[in-house]
Amino acid sequence: MIKKIDSYIATSVLWAFLIVALVLLGLDFALTFIEQIKKVNDNYTIQSLLQVIVYRLPGKLAEYIPIASLIGTLMGLGTLAATSELTVMRAAGMPIWRIGMAACQPILIVSLLGMGISEFVAPITEQKANLIEKMRNQKSGTFSVTGGLWLKVDNNFVYIDAADSSGKLYGIKIFSPNEQKLNKIQAATSAEHIKDSTWQLNSVSETIFLPDRVETTQREKGEWNVSIKPEHLFLAAQEPETLSLSQLLSYQNYLSQQKLDASKYQLEFWITVLRPIASLALVLVALSSVFGPLRSSTMGGRIFSGVLIGLAFQNALNLFGRMSVAISFPPVVGVSIPIIICLLAGIILMRRRG
User: Fold this and answer.
1) Which of 81, 194, 237, 247 is exposed most, by the fewest CB atoms within 10 A?
2) What is the pTM of this model?
């Protein structure tokens, strides 16, 4: 009998979670479409925009899991409370902790599934979306100098507009200084790794600054020798939030070996790793609210409360995380602070409820 009740509670919470996740993704899709529609032109069509938004949905789903867990628990258990089913369960001798465990089970499964999405699905789709978005400038033969990556490699300053998972680079600009003066600029539409430290540049435009004149030459192919490994060039060209856990770990280790700042990658790594714990912490807060101040509240009131708590948590996570990067503090500590606060608050309130 107890197992059937556990299954009933878990199913109620899971269905509510799925509805909330679907609504959040739908709102995100609509708002993003409205915001990005102004970018549509001959090179970046409606189809391309829709493709980009759809490719980013898996990453958004993984990101929304904690907030959807909170609101879903409030809705699922709130519905049971409104029909007095929770009261009957309590009267039958079922403790609050047992109800809490039943509610946490589907959230834990969904959170682990979210980590799988973050590792195996979202990085691939996010990188495809970024490539489509950035390549709209390449179709018209122009170069974007914003939103890409700047590197200092072998005394040269290199700009990479985008990269794909095969290691091909797009929109390359190589600035070669001579002391305080700019000596040469090489621009290429793409670059492909040949072997070791050698890359082939395609559709190359080279500008040389001489004392009395400027010379510009065009050629189909050129050679570029650079000491950084191809896989690190690809990872460097991606935003931290588009990388998988393994990629984040690999690149932050590389940056640490080179004595470079890896805090942005460490921050994103810990946000993803601790997301299941964050989801469970928010579920505890939801449980304490359902058995406390929100037990006689309307569904609209519960949803509103869940949105407020979720936004406060997300803002606290961003604030403490970015503060830890700004003051050179371990990012794991910054990310853990709001999660620990939620866990402690949930446990204390649950104990007070009985």
Assistant:
1) 194
2) 0.87
Taking a C-beta distance cutoff of 8 angstroms, is the pair 99, 89 a contact? Answer: yes
Tokens of 340: 């620990």
For 286, the token pair is 């939801």
Instruction: In whole angstroms, give the CA distance from residue 346 to residue 275.
Output: 17
What's the token pair of residue 193? Answer: 């790794």
What's the pLDDT tens digit per position in 20-73?
999 999 999 999 999 999 989 888 899 999 999 999 999 999 999 999 999 999
Collapsed DSSP state (helix, strand, coil) of residue 94: coil
Same domain for 267 and 131 = yes
Residue 298 bridge partners (DSSP): none
Cα-flanking dihedrals φ and ψ of residue 184, to 5°?
-160, 145
If asked whether residues 117 and 182 sit together in one domain, one would say: no
Can you say whether the dihedral through the CA atoms of 31, 33, 36, 38 is positive or negative? negative
Distance CA 157, CA 171 (A): 14
CB–CB of 155/165 below 8 Å? Answer: no
Q: For residue 346, give both structure tokens.
A: 């949930």
Q: Is the domain of 176 the same as that of 80?
A: no
Q: Report whether 242 contacts 126 (CB < 8 A).
A: yes
**Which own/partner contact pairs does 94-101 have at CB distance under 8 Å and 24+ positions apart?**
94/2, 94/5, 95/354, 96/287, 96/291, 96/350, 96/353, 96/354, 97/350, 98/2, 98/6, 99/9, 99/287, 100/283, 100/284, 100/287, 100/350, 101/6
